[in-house]
Amino acid sequence: MQAKSDDATTSDWGGMLKGIAARDRITQAELALALHTSQSTISKITQGISRPRPNLRCRIEALAASKEVSTQWLEKVGEAARSSPKFFKIVDAALCLVNNNE
């Protein structure tokens, strides 16, 4: 299910998101929350209309590599997003560093 950012096509990203949602039994809205993006963006990617930007690619790859998205984790991410927008900039940078060093 995992594709590297440089090699993934538009359909690869959509397939990866569909796979994560099916694996974790979550909706596009919940997937959007977990990835700190909009449901519209998730929909466009899963339909093959657009590709994710580099920072979203890092988050998708990290989520695909994880075991599953828990409800508690989604709630914590939502709380962090509301309290500190800088939180996601830090997480994005860290995920990109980790994914690029694999």
Automatic annotation (TrEMBL):
Ranges where the HTH cro/C1-type domain occurs: 26-74
Gene Ontology molecular functions: DNA binding
Pfam families named among the record's database cross-references: HTH_3 (PF01381)
Gene3D superfamilies reported for this sequence: lambda repressor-like DNA-binding domains
InterPro entries on file: Cro/C1-type_HTH, Lambda_DNA-bd_dom_sf
This protein's UniProt keywords: Plasmid
Name of protein: Helix-turn-helix transcriptional regulator
